[in-house]
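HUMAN: Spend a minute on the protein record below and explain its fold to me.
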Amino acid sequence: MAECLTVLQVLPALEGGGVEKGTLELAAGLVAAGHRSLVMSAGGRLVSRLTGQGSEHFVAPVDRKSLFTPFRSRALRRFLREQGVDILHARSRMPAWIAYRAWRGLPEAQRPHFVTTVHGLYSVNRYSRIMTRGERVIAVSEAAARYVTANYRKFPAGRLRVIERGIDPKVYPFGYRPGDAWLQRWYRDFPFLLERRVLTLPGRLTRLKGHRDFIELMRRLVAGGQPVHGLIVGGEDPKRAAYADELRRLVQRHGLEGHITFTGHRLDLRDILAVSNVVLSLSTRPESFGRTTREALALGVPVVGYDHGGVGDTLERAFPQGRVPAGDPDALEARVRRVLASPPELSPPRFPSVQDMIGRTLDLYAELAGR
């Protein structure tokens, strides 16, 4: 085994989402490879899963966007020294600012190597520029790499590495069907789904995920006599409770209470995707990756999504007939009707695996550490 590294990943919280999932996957890979895996965040529901895999978690208020937050860099600087951190890996902007200031405040000979991952297509400004300050900058997709090179012209391209997020073929096998016990529970809870086509929009209840476009799509399909039911699968952010209420009022206004279900946060998203007839990806702004798009396609479930960012790249690669111009309700309705009328035969897509992602990231760490 290669010499043991101590790696600290820093992110706002561990509640759920693509950044968090990637953090846990890499943490598990570090432990399996014999390295010491540390994660610092404000905490959340995924902490127990992280520590159960053998990583160590440290609670810190690295999620707060405050003028006083950068002064927490002093505490992080002490932590880096005490823990003997070799690689400091920042995965979000506020934690990256704290990490960068802590890193810069150490004597050069005592600094760990600093890595950032560009998970999103952020607004272009000084605050976001921090994600390009790593000694190595990981882009989670070609779309994320295009964002960096197009918007930060002085960025040294030699520091950029495209390491796509991985899909575990054991977790998302092509043609997967849930077990009988799960199906019995599912149809006991939602018996009306047995007689309807299921359209699923996964994602937390935030304005960027396109819930209003999904509700409008459902309104059109139901008005046209389509036997469909829509699932909005994602947790509610307490800070965005007003938005969740707004969506429910919109469903009521269109008389769709019997046609759209808000499931809340679910741990069985894979099974829900597998029993869906169509999965939607309708983010109003381009996403850097679009994990659920790849997960659904990996299972063999058709995806209809807006043709921009990482989702557009994925659909072009694996299911081009699922692409729709962003924000075009007529094109979206027509495409979904077409997929429902004639379900396509998908082929197993060739996406990088989780092991590919972990292996390439560990290689990058070794390159920096000179090992």
